[in-house]
Each structure stands twice: as C-alpha cells, then as structure tokens.
C-alpha cells in the first residue's frame, strides 16, 4: 500500500472571451472539487485553492473546459 500525501494546490485560470464566460471543472481522482464559471474579465487570472490527498503511486488532477461550442 502506498503512503498518503497531502498537498495544497493554487491554480490560476483565465479565459479570453467576448460575451460567453468559460466554464470549467476541476477533479481529483474522479472526485469533482469545483465546477464553476470564470468570474474575472477576459484575460485576468483568478485563483482557486484546494488541498488533495493522494497515494504516492498514482493520482490524476483534471481541469476540463465545459460548454464550449465551435464558434467560441
């Protein structure tokens, strides 16, 4: 069995958009940590902070862009 580690993550996200703010989902090992929409104006970074625990043998941190269409 692998040891558990705890890490604090500070993630900066920004989007370039005109009228439709980008939405996103952050998950860790298939557990959703945050699903939201960028709240800052275009090209301004906003930060999201969270702690995760993971086994030292494997872990997955996923950031997904949601709801984008061809013209976006």
Alpha-beta content class:
mainly beta
Strand content: over 45%
Give the CA-based shape.
elongated
**Rg measurement, Å:** 15 Å
Question: Roughly what is the average pLDDT, rounded to an integer?
Answer: 89
Query: How many distinct beta strands?
Result: 5
The main sheet comes to:
3 strands, antiparallel
**Strand sequence of the main sheet, in spatial order?**
3-2-5
Tell me the span between the first and last alpha carbons: 45 Å
H/I helix tally: 0
**How much helix, percentage-wise, in residues?**
under 10%
Low confidence ranges: none
Order of helices and strands: EEEEE
What layout of secondary structure does this protein have?
Elements: E1 4-13, E2 23-28, E3 31-37, E4 46-55, E5 61-66
Antiparallel strand pairs: 1-4, 2-3, 2-5
Please supply descriptive tags for the structure shown above.
72 residues, mainly beta, two-stranded antiparallel sheet
Please describe what this structure looks like.
With 72 residues, this protein is an all-beta fold. It is built from no helices and five strands. It has a three-stranded antiparallel β-sheet with strand order 3-2-5, with no helix packed on it. The protein has a two-stranded antiparallel ribbon with strand order 1-4. β2 (23-28) and β3 (31-37) form a beta hairpin. It is elongated. The mean pLDDT is 89.
